[in-house]
Design brief:
The structure is a homodimer of 219-residue chains. With 219 residues, chain A is mostly helical. Chain A contains eleven helices and no strands.
DNA sequence: AAACAAGTTGACCAAGCGGTCAATTTCTTT
DNA sequence: AAAGAAATTGACCGCTTGGTCAACTTGTTT
């Protein structure tokens, strides 16, 4: 339509807003990750973002609204991982892929994971709808698929819901409790190899735990 | 010596102090569990303990000192569970017992678990010594035992340290992220049966994950 | 019952909090 | 280049915070 007439115009309208909002959201995620909503202060976030405090209020209103914006962004990220689990999938490949995706999240977005953990620890006051509607239905849907695999004898009999709890716990622990892992492993940070090894350990453990012999890795 | 002369005396000296400190510690654990050190307020804790705020300061000094007292009490509790894992133990029984003890902790002391989780999420500023010295050495000691079991062919080959990370994660998730579990399971709280079932699921999963056939349950 | 220690608590304080606002600068549009 | 919209920010405000204290009550010892 008019994008050839004014390419700079439509691209630049709200450009500053978008950039600053992203910048603030990123800083807020880091700060909320450490101390949660109640513990974080707007000054901390402002300093982390390199902007005056009044600027955050200009873009996001209140601390609660900024927090909700952070949570919303995280949920959008969260909801993508499960979707490779289909009835006709090979359980080994599907589960391994799911664990691998979750481990990648823990590595690439550890702050998101920690914000989520903080929110759950404080009773999830801003996530009740997500937990009771969205997450619950997704788990039920995926649980039916896993129940199908079980009844076909393709994996051990277990409660799929608990399997999800355990997989979430095992994968997110590498983001949420990274200090503990670094201390025990005696390293300053986990490098590529350490992450690949951790991912492998979790995948093997999960597959064996599901009664799947972790042989099929070749196409 | 003089304990028969004044039985009430020695028993009652500091009795009030002990009772009030315990009462405050219990309330503080609950409040710190929800929002961590930075998020909790002394007024909240005072209200939870049913005492005036000035009273908490009389017994514990500052908020940080109260927090450290809470952490110390938790660590004493924490450090007991591992000690049933000996080289000559049956791996199946030892691991099952360890998981069961951890699950019992999650049920009976969920607030302790959450205080710990909050502390780790904020980078464990008050636990670096514990993590880097105490915990690290315990893990190394127990890892040697597990490595022994592996080399004897009594369980699958895996990195014992990652096994610990996974077991801690799986068991503590039932305390730390209980909201999520209640939402997905669609219950207001987990009853005896639900906890027994969850414990069973985790134990079976861990044993299979370790390559142990979960047959031996009879004495 | 006298004397002292231990415990209680309302009132108070400086500091930091979330949030507002008006004055100003910078962008964008025409 | 004019004009209006968007963005910036130091100064400020009422309120809550962690913490103190002095006056007081309760418990313990002799």
């Amino acid at each position: 339509m008019n994008n050839s007439a004014s390419p700079r115009t439509t691209a630049s309208r709200g450009r500053i807003r978008r950039e600053n909002e992203a910048r603030i959201l990123e800083a807020a995620e880091r700060v909320f990750a450490e101390t949660g909503l109640a513990g974080a202060t707007m000054s901390q976030i402002a300093q982390a973002a390199g902007l005056p405090k009044a600027n955050l209020h200009y873009y996001f209103g209140t601390k609660e609204q900024l927090y909700q914006a952070v949570l919303t962004a995280i949920l959008e990220l969260w909801l993508d991982a499960t979707d490779a689990m289909l009835p006709e999938s090979d359980p080994a490949l599907a589960l391994a892929g799911y664990v691998r995706a979750k481990m990648r999240h823990s590595r690439t977005r550890p702050f998101a994971s920690r914000v989520f953990a903080n929110e759950l620890l404080s009773g999830a006051p801003y996530l009740t709808d997500y937990l009771e509607i969205d997450l619950k239905q997704r788990v039920e849907a995926k649980s039916r698929i896993i129940a199908g695999w079980i009844s076909e004898g393709r994996m051990a009999a277990l409660d799929p819901r608990h399997l999800f709890f355990m997989i979430w716990a095992m994968t997110q622990t590498y983001a949420d409790f990274a200090v503990q892992i670094r201390a025990v492993m005696n390293v300053e940070s986990l490098d590529d190899d350490a992450w690949e090894e951790a991912t492998g350990e979790v995948i093997s453990f999960v597959l064996r735990g599901c009664g799947i012999t972790p042989a099929a890795s070749a196409p």
